[in-house]
Amino acid sequence: MIPATFDYVRAGSVDEVIGLLGEHGDDAKLLAGGHSLLPLMKLRLAQPALLVDIGRLRELSYVTEEEDVIALGALTRHHDIATSPVTLSSVPLLAHVAGQIGDLQVRHRGTIGGSICHGDPASDLAAVLLALGATFVAQGPNGRREIDAQDFFVSFFEVALRSDELLVEIRVPRPLDARWGFEKLTKRAQDWAIVGAVAVRSRSGVGVGLINLGPVPLRSSAVEAAVVAGSNAAEAAAFAAEGTEPSADFNGSVAYRQHVARVLVRRALEKAGV
Amino acid sequence: MQIDITVNGTAESHDVEARTLLVYYLRDAVGLKGTNVGCDTTSCGACTVLLNGESVKSCTVLAAQVAGEEVTTIEGLALEDGRMHPVQQAFQECHGLQCGYCTPGMVMAITSLLAENPDPTEEYIRLGLEGNLCRCTGYHNIVAAALAASQALEMRQ
Amino acid sequence: MSILGNRVLRREDPKFLTVGGTYVADLALPGSVHVTFVRSSMAHARIVSVDSTYAQAMPGVLAVYTNDDLGLPKFPTIMGMTNEAMTPPMLASGTVRYVGEPIAAIVAESREIAEDALEQVVVEYEPLKVVIDPVKARTDEDLLFPDAGTNTSFSLDFGGDETLFDDCEVVVELTLANQRVAPCPLEVRSAAAHMSEDGRLEFNSSTQAPHGVRDALATFLDLEPDQVHVVTPDVGGGFGAKGAVYPEDIVVGWCAQKLGRPVRWTETRSESMLGLGHGRAQVQHVRIGGTREGAVLAYRIEVLQDTGAYAGFGAVLPFMTRMMTSGPYKIPRAECASYSVVTNSTPTTAYRGAGRPEATAAIERIMDLFAREIDMDPAELRRRNLIEKDDFPYTTPVDTVYDVGDYHRALDLALEVAGYDDLRAEQVRRRTAGDVRQLGIGLSCYVEITNGLPDGEFGAVEVRPDGKVIVRTGTSPHGQGHVTAWSMLVAEQLGVAIEDIEVIHGDTDVVPRGAGTMGSRSLQVGGAAVNQAAVDVVEKAKDLAADLFEADRDDIVLDKANGRFHVVGTPALSRSWAELAEAAAKDGTALFAEVDLASPGPTYPFGTHISVVEVDTETGKVNVLRHIAVDDAGRIISPLLAEGQVHGGIAQGVAQALLEEVVYDLDGNPLTSTLADYSFISAAELPSYETRFTETPTPVNALGAKGIGESGTIGSTPAVHNAVCDAVAHLGVRHIDMPTTPVRVWSAINDAVTGHGTAKGGR
Q: Which of C17, C268, C686 minimises the CB distance to B92?
């Protein structure tokens, strides 16, 4: 399958990208690693008039350690996150999950920013970043602004970026003395999760993220509140389905997905030491 | 648009449409037919090639995206003296191929996998090949070939 | 020392590993145009109009053809057995009957333009009632072919003995689905065609049967067979589904004739998931009866076969299911009845096993339920009922005659390799402890039929004056390794090095006749034909040597170690194959023999597979821990290739048991039309296998060999299925239909624990 025709431009700087976005609006699409967009274009489910290739903006590919934050450039590849000494030592959960996205070939191309901006509720990374309390830095014509992960995922495949904004950085507060658990149920290793759950417990608190349990990636405040209130893993996990709206398909009914959410949240909490 | 890519060490320059996928650049513009297309959803891995030494699925990369970079296909894997690469060799010795269609992609994927982890376990290989589908071998001998190749590569060093 | 039975590496491999195979899409065809097909987006509808005005006006579009433009006849029935009204047209004619059915062919200067044009053809539909459930189709409430007055395309009704179960103390019944699956060869369908300068149709096809393609093209395009030249280059797998000729193949040939330009077509995977035939697709009702001591006395299976939208090979699959009704067991009374019905789905066809895996799945599942009913270990129940090795040839109650076997030996070896008693002890331990992850142990004893169709095969061997040996075969390998195996057979007979042997296949000009590769027939018929031709060439060479040595014909010896002929007692004076070929050439003849071997008749491979799985009882997810396969395909010529066949078969069997299913919604929309949605199994879901062969040579053919291509699938599927059901049996689960996906397994457990009926899970 072959994409429909489009104009292609390779951006040389972030400013150029923002200029192009301002000029072309919704006709333009950003191409990072391309592993969310190109499959849609091949199936002709997406037919942008202009493709702005941001893949060579090397300045947006980094993992750095600040005093209490790990900063990741939006164009950092999954593979780099999975193998970076910084993530491995400071946020091993992020390295672990990045190392399970798609398959190795996908991780060699796919980027954290591209993945996040796609807004897929089945995204593992999105749920992890929610649980870690990350913030996303967007840059537009008027400069930079920070968006809390909680506010970033607006609705089904829609995120809180304006049409002339580019996601440039993901900032993850360094979890102190963290223990974590990540659980996902798939039919095949390469599949998106039918349901997934992530739990992080650190000195700064507890975070629980849910994968594929609604139109957007979710953070489970009910479970978090239960843990904070002193519940054990099983007790807290009983709240895992609260506020979820999973879809039903041949991989599972709503009831099944909610049941599995409770099981996986419990297991993730147990691994996180709750 | 004119796109320059170094393929198997040779500088290639071809005028192709912007929408040309890397796999069709390799097959149609360069004329290297060893890389196959097996699906249209980035699922099967038959089109796997090395981009700057790392495995990628060439059906999900625009040729334009990798202009100026280096691509290695199955045709470019053999050693300089013409002998098969240890991964290729191991595939024959372990009967890791039948119809051959997934084979170039499998070989390239394993080459990349072993570059990242020269001393893999069977589990590592199996998970590492989650994105490369084969319908003939049941994977048993492919996994055996990957493990055999890792030992051969180790001995070579 | 014989080369046969040795682990000879494949001669095919270096090319595949260094530059890749040459598949149809790889062939150079200068000036070629591309065909793509407009396909139905509706499962059942009347075509009101096909508007291709915009598409035809696009630069680079040569033509858009509909069925009316072609003027070609419909496909014929399968051997006169299927309903005549239900055969497919070339392109949809007035009505579409499944999503993906080809409606029009677009010819364009490039693949890109063809795909762009696809979006510019507008088809207007008037929806008709969709029939997707075969059980509903059988009621004839809504008809796919109103003129036929029925949805039944083929049936095998052998009455029904009402007293069948009269003397049985215990009778167990089950309705089970053998779900629709997609064969998924890694290479999709592809064809290329052009007219040669002398007016012949040159056709390249990704097929299992080049001569079948040649004959079909000749018939439909009104040509003599010798006006069609089919060449099959490397083929990226077939698994039965490339045994048939498809409408698209014929249309590609027609376009080349019509336009006088080289034409090529390669479908996309998304098209292939809807266009390449699907496999299995049976609903079965089985009944078994016997004594409390474990003697099975009676068995009956009723098959409802989903043929998809048109009655092709899928309609007659129950014929093979019926032949294998009673499996490897000595059951005094057994019956099979079947009904094949059309539904608004992709037509079904042969898929690895083609009718036999379905038979094995049914009896092996109900054997487990019977064992449970009488509280007997399933291995013990099987042992008590297997046909004894002294019973062969054995005629079953449905009049199938099994050639030879030692079924107990395969069972015993499998149990030993598995460490069966230890596994059961571990299972008890986990059950007692109430572990979340429960262990399941599943057995499957099988016997199957290979070379079940009556075709013979062509084989020829020629020794040339340069010492090279040319072998021609009518089989058409697509991964099986015939070049290596046939080289071994010829090397064995001639005493030449396999490097000196060239094996030619898949060219209808060079190989005059051939039935192709399907039904695990190739070695026992095609290999046997080549073997016979080699024997004949040796005899001819001996005649020639007798003349040259002026010796008695009976005193001529072929020294196979050196590939030289001499007179008995005087090995120092000898002639090589090359010298004899040279001498023959001088005589104006050749060292050549060709054989049209009549089919020696079917053979019956057998074995026992044991699967060990772990089931996460909280999520329903199944993990395969071990798979033990003991297979007996008679004499093993190439252990390397035979083992490879078993491996591939096991993976496909595990895939069907656990993961793979073609799913439609009630409107007939396919939900699994990409490899992202269809759960094609990967290395990550499988363990390494523990395979063993026992060798019980068959007296049916000269090689003593049976087919091994499909045994892996036939044996493994029920073993894995039984293992999953076994893992949760103690929780009160009686049966879970395949594929035993997480949601289905969990739903079954949940229903058992909460006392609800059998759930099908997430739909």
A: C17
> Distance (Å, rounded) from C-alpha C642 to C-alpha C648?
10
Paired tokens of C507: 């060219």
Strand partners, A201: A179, A206
Q: Given the DSSP bridges, would you call strands A63-65 and A69-73 parallel, antiparallel or unpaired?
A: antiparallel
pLDDT at A127: 97
Task: Select the residue of A53, A108, A190 nearest B65 (Cβ to Cβ).
Answer: A53
Per-residue three-class SS string for C472-535: EECCCCCCCCHHHHHHHHHHHHHCCCHHHEEEECCECCCCCCCCCCCCCCHHHHHHHHHHHHHH
Distance of alpha carbon A140 from alpha carbon A147, whole angstroms? 13
Query: What domain range includes position C577?
Result: 457-597
Which residue, C41, C38, C37, is CA-closest to C669? Answer: C41
Residues of B in contact with A55 (CB under 8 A): 65
Predicted pLDDT of residue C379: 98
* C neighbours by CB contacts (3+ pairs under 8 Å): A, B
Mean pLDDT calculated for residue range B102-120:
97
Whether A18 contacts A139, CB under 8 Å:
yes
Query: Across the interface, do A31 and B62 touch by the CB < 8 Å criterion?
Result: yes
Integer Cα distance of C430 and B38 in angstroms? 42
Residue A261 identity (one-letter amino acid): A
Name the architecture of domain A58-173: 2-Layer Sandwich (3.30)
- The answer to whether residues C675 and C744 belong to one domain is yes
Q: Which amino acid is at A25?
A: G
Nearest C-alpha neighbor of A269 from the set A215, A187, A201: A201
The answer to whether the CB of A110 falls within 8 A of the CB of B60 is no
C292 lies in the same domain as C432? yes
Helix (H, G, I), strand (E, B) or coil at B91: helix
How many structural domains comprise chain C?
3
ipTM above 0.85, yes or no: yes
Q: Which residue is associated with the tokens 């470019």?
A: B76
Do the Cβ atoms of A106 and B131 come within 8 Å?
yes
Least CB-CB distance to B38: which of C186, C676, C682? C186
3-state secondary structure chain A: CCCCCCEEEECCCHHHHHHHHHHHHHHEEEECCCCCHHHHHHCCCCCCCEEEECCCCHHHCCEEECCCEEEEECCCEHHHHHHCHHHHHHCHHHHHHHCCCCCHHHHHHCEHHHHHHHCCCCCHHHHHHHHCCCEEEEEECCEEEEEEHHHHEEECCEECCCCCCEEEEEEEECCCCCEEEEEEECCCCCCCCCEEEEEEEECCEEEEEEECCCCCCEECHHHHHHHHCCCCHHHHHCCCCCCCCCCCECCECHHHHHHHHHHHHHHHHHHCCC
Q: What is the CATH number of domain A179-271?
A: 3.30.390.50
On whether the CB atoms of residues C100 and C39 are closer than 8 A, the answer is yes
pLDDT of the residue at B157: 67
Q: How far is C279 from chain B (nearest CA, A)?
A: 15
Q: What is the amino acid identity at position C379?
A: A
pLDDT bin (cut points 50, 70, 90) of residue B82 is: confident
Q: Which residue of B has its CA nearest to A37?
A: B60
Query: Which one-letter amino acid corresponds to residue B77?
Result: L
pLDDT the model gives residue C151:
98
Q: Which residues in chain C touch residue B136, judged by CB atoms under 8 angstroms apart?
A: 186, 237, 479, 644, 648
**Does B45 touch chain A if contact means CB atoms closer than 8 Å?**
yes
Q: Judge if C340 and C405 occupy the same domain.
A: yes
Yes or no: say if C95 and C147 are a contact pair by the CB < 8 Å rule. Answer: no
Calculate the average pLDDT of chain A.
96
